[in-house]
Amino acid sequence: MFAVVSDIHSNIEALSVVLADIEKRGIQKIYCLGDVVGYGPNPTECLDLIIDRSEWCVLGNHDYAVFYEPTNFNYGAEQASFWTRDVMETDTDRARSDKRWRFLGELPMRRTLETQLGPTKATVDFVHASPRRPINEYIFPDDVYTNPAKVRVLFERIPHICFVGHTHMPGVFLDEPDFYLPDELGGAYPIIEEEKAIINIGSVGQPRDKDNRASYVYVEENKVHFVRLEYDFETTMKKIYAIDRLDNFHAERLRDGR
Fold it and tell me: Which parts pass through the membrane (predicted)?
């Protein structure tokens, strides 16, 4: 049994609620798909929690932007990366600061588990964005209609199951190709050996599917369960508004889930 979280984006209110729910379910292992930082007001606090609580994390494009340089970012996202870097660099606790920088600098682009999930033997890949371009390729639900060739190529890159984030839109891609929202699956997807799937787990800290509740998944036996949780987004919004270098849009989108 394990949980998968992604796209926290420096939102400590959302992350705290998600971690509490994971603990309440008795789940011991947490895997993170990256973008711990970016956009939001509490980067160091979120990094500390992920460092302490997760088994491991893979590299997201916003993690990359803070450690290296923003690539193909809009102005607001770019400025948030620079602000996050400044916050991390000015922490006076050098040991704690060094631990965070070392964590970001050592993040791999991909992790793979060979495991038994209930009755199912599974190979599970974990990337931030896509199996082809792990850091920054978007896989949108509409791609199954507008660019099915792209989806088929992505499925050629995985042996079985791949967990992704990046678009902040939860759901399951199958290699027909097709896409299913969590509600269309009854909130859970059963992993079977004969079926490949790319599973987007949604975003903890900045949902974009018109549902402002924090999103994550947990796997019990061979079922992937999608979870949505309400959190105090208004507090997060107020913090963003109070920081001049963070774009107000990144606060407003939290209310609308966009």
Answer: none
Degrees to nearest 5, angle at CA 186 with 182 and 187: 50
What mean pLDDT comes out for the span 58-85?
A: 97
Interatomic CA distance for residues 205 and 33, integer angstroms: 13
CATH number attached to the domain at 2-256:
3.60.21.10
Query: From CA 132, how far away is CA 156, in angstroms rounded?
Result: 9
- Beta carbons of 191 and 120 less than 8 angstroms apart: yes
Is pTM beyond 0.85? Reply is: yes
Give the separation between CA 57 and CA 53, rounded to whole angstroms: 10
d(CA 239, CA 256): 17
Per the CB < 8 A criterion, the answer to whether 231 and 191 are in contact is: no
- The residue extents of the domains of the chain are 2-256
Distances (CA, A) of 145 to 9, 12, 142, 179, 226: 29, 36, 6, 9, 24
Angstrom distances, CA of residue 80 to CA of 22, 178, 202, 221: 28, 35, 21, 39
pLDDT in tens, 124-168: 999 999 999 999 999 999 999 999 999 999 999 999 999 999 999
